[in-house]
Design a protein that fits this description.
238 residues; alpha+beta; six-stranded antiparallel beta sheet; globular
Length: 238
């Protein structure tokens, strides 16, 4: 089974090859250095999940035995951007309540006792986190989302400043800046428009895109961000 989901961190290569993979789950083991503060997870172009299914997204921080449920993506919501924040020298930046949350969906502090993929050893000496993605029935995801919503509400009423993973929503963005959904759509549209020209007909009649095309797209996309960091925020045709 080819991997239908990719993970993107700022200033890093696109992660399209999972560390472990089963028919319904996969994991990406990612070093936490150099530091980063956002994670983008999205379905690859021309990819669909089975009817009635969503891809639950989980995060296991360094030295934590448990996965934390972050949210989900699916055929109707093909991407999500999360912000992580934690003090210390593990590479995850402290949240600090800054103003860089405009593209963020949400991240929750809920701990989920789930098993995703297989055991992965770390021999590099650099702290690593694991992003787990599990194909689950939409009903099961809905239950977790509701629990997440309730925990988030309780945490907000008891403490306005959490040192764990911070929740941010694109709805609180400046009116002059595009919403989370629009920015995510522009990233995927940029990738799709570039990769479409590399599509070839496979043996089963389905269109296929070589991995090299993804790497070429990421190189061009990264250079474009370096030249104009705000290009995604500009209106189409600007």
């Amino acid at each position: 089974m080819s991997c239908p989901i990719a993970v993107l961190l700022p200033s890093r290569p696109l992660h399209i090859t999972p560390t472990t993979q089963t028919p319904t789950a996969l994991t990406f083991t990612i070093p936490t250095l150099p530091p980063f503060s956002h994670i983008c997870v999205f379905l690859l172009p021309a990819t669909t999940l089975p009817p009635g299914a969503l891809a639950g997204i989980y995060l296991q921080l360094p030295e934590s035995p448990n996965f934390k449920f972050l949210g989900a993506i699916g055929n109707e919501k093909e991407s999500a951007i999360f912000k992580v924040g934690r003090g210390g020298d593990n590479g995850l930046r402290n949240d600090g309540g800054g103003g860089d949350d405009l593209m963020v969906d949400e991240i929750a502090p809920a701990t989920s006792q789930v098993s995703i993929g297989g055991e992965v050893g770390n021999t590099s000496g650099v702290p690593e986190m694991i992003i787990g993605i599990q194909i689950e029935p939409a009903e099961a995801i809905a239950v977790q989302m509701e629990a997440l919503k309730q925990e988030r509400g309780a945490a907000t009423s008891s403490s306005g400043n959490s040192s764990q993973i911070a929740l941010r929503r694109g709805a609180f963005a400046s009116p002059n800046q595009p919403s989370t959904k629009v920015l995510a759509q522009r990233i995927i549209e940029n990738a799709f428009n570039f990769l479409a020209s590399f599509a070839t007909q496979g043996g089963t009649g389905e269109e296929m895109v070589p991995l090299k095309a993804f790497r070429d797209w990421w190189t061009k996309f990264e250079k474009k961000i370096e030249i104009d960091p705000a290009f995604l925020e500009k209106a189409e045709g600007a």
